């Protein structure tokens, strides 16, 4: 069973410290969210899972962490200055603004007026000043996608790693879009994180690699706890493709507000490297690119046998961290009926994503002997570096179990008076609510087992 409404997720996220409205103290800023004590852990765990699958588990991918502030030249040649726009419509009656493609009928969703302007392009990129003089000339963009600085670093990475095709460059980082109508909680925000891989391939092998990455990404989302039944592949229609794309497959997920894009996997052809490269005329670039007199570097690959230069094609799986979190929270949220007509809310997260891996709970709050024993167990478990282990010194075991069910902690370790005598503890499982007694010395291996490490 998935969450019934977005409101239930929003409420859980705020109550338990996953996600808060940003700048709430001063009325909030629309389209921005802050990640609280548990949100930051969940987010980091998701990013780590992506990095592990995309970089560590492969032998053909390198990592990168490039700057957010981006030279206007990069986004001029990438095509974003001209084409990274949404069609905007103003309501003349109430002055509200809408994305034209969001208006199903030609009426203002706010006041119902039909007195609307014609759609006009609105560029989604944020600008900021560079240096002390605000003369409108020295500015940078906040990157609208992490991808561009991967392309501009193509030669740096190639030269410093001696890679040959196919190979990829992966990056996780913030992206910024001045969305006209941010909404649906963290689904569409103005500041978000992307997990992007640019996978460079020999032209002609691109569609085969596109298929490969679509399948690999579907499997990865399933490994994060998304039921494959809730995912759909949509091939983007040719008239809806981004300016750089030859083919794009969107992975759609049934969010609480409807079926929408979770991740896009694009065949960006040789458009980006071709656009940013020097020596365009000598490189047989197949996409339509603007002439580039400004680039300092040739972004191409030389075949060692034939010495011929070629601009690689690139396949890009691009996933949003926040949309991933929303889907994962939606999948994990379960209300279970218990005996006696009671209910429990449980967040059945995959253990590797859980913000707290284990809570160690002394049966009696502030009892010196119990707290000391619990602290020792907490330290031992923490030293395994599996993620956050919490010492829960607040008494009331039942309340603690319920709280940890709600935040997805897979394991609770309870230290009671018997523990002081025989060095055994009670382990309580989040999903089955089953309890068993184990010697303290066996707890680390048990937790590692739950996390699939041993
Ligand atoms: P949409 O059509 O929903 O605006 P998009 O096609 O513009 O998305 P891409 O440019 O393909 O999105 O970006 C890749 C991924 O980045 C998306 O699949 C999504 O997960 C994430 N993303 C894009 N825009 C936003 C946003 N405003 N807020 C949160 N995540 C976003």
Q: How is this structure best summarized?
A:
The chain is globular, with a radius of gyration of 26 Å. The protein has 13 helices and 24 strands. The protein is of the alpha+beta class.
Descriptive report:
With 454 residues, the chain is of the alpha+beta class. It folds into 3 domains: 37-84 and 128-329, BirA Bifunctional Protein, domain 2 (2-Layer Sandwich), CATH 3.30.930; 85-123, no CATH class; 354-450, Anticodon-binding domain (Rossmann fold, 3-Layer(aba) Sandwich). 29% of the residues lie in helices and 28% in strands. The chain has helices at 6-15, 37-56, 72-77, 80-83, 147-152, 154-161, 206-223, 271-276, 321-332, 368-382, 397-407, 417-422, 443-450; strands at residues 19-21, 33-35, 61-63, 69-70, 85-90, 97-99, 120-123, 126-129, 139-142, 167-176, 191-201, 231-235, 247-255, 258-269, 301-302, 309-310, 313-320, 333-337, 343-347, 356-362, 388-391, 411-415, 424-429, 435-439. The strands form 7 sheets. Strands 3-10-11-17-14-13-12 form a 7-stranded mixed β-sheet. Strands 21-20-22-23-24 form a 5-stranded mixed β-sheet. The chain has a 3-stranded antiparallel β-sheet with strand order 4-9-8. Strand 18 and strand 19 (343-347) form a beta hairpin. The longest helix is centred in the N-terminal third of the chain and has 20 residues, at 37-56. Bound molecules: adenosine-5'-triphosphate.
